[in-house]
Amino acid sequence: MDKDKYTALHWAAKFGYVDIVKALLDKKASINVKNNDGKIPVDLTTNQEIKDLLQSAQKSNNDKLLSAAKDGNIEDVEHLINEGADVNAANKEGDTPLILAIRTCLKSS
Description:
The chain has helices spanning 8-14, 18-26, 41-44, 48-71, 74-82, 97-108. By secondary structure, the chain is mainly α. The protein has one domain: Serine Threonine Protein Phosphatase 5, Tetratricopeptide repeat, CATH 1.25.40.
């Protein structure tokens, strides 16, 4: 991260380096780190392929969060939230992570 809080993923997205974005995502680079202007990597790109890659990574994190909440896996839930997964994401039934976590707690009581 540089003085302006740009990560390698910010720079690769900004300059349209698709292969570098792919490599960074494969290495689990955080997609939600904000730079000094409050921008995440997807905000800096004009390249549609990069936008699609970053949005797909976000959806994957959201899906993992929904699954972790349903399973009652608190450590994974905390990690995914810290990585920027959307706590308001909903599954096909419209359930959010909070609803799934509550159901899991109620079943185990």
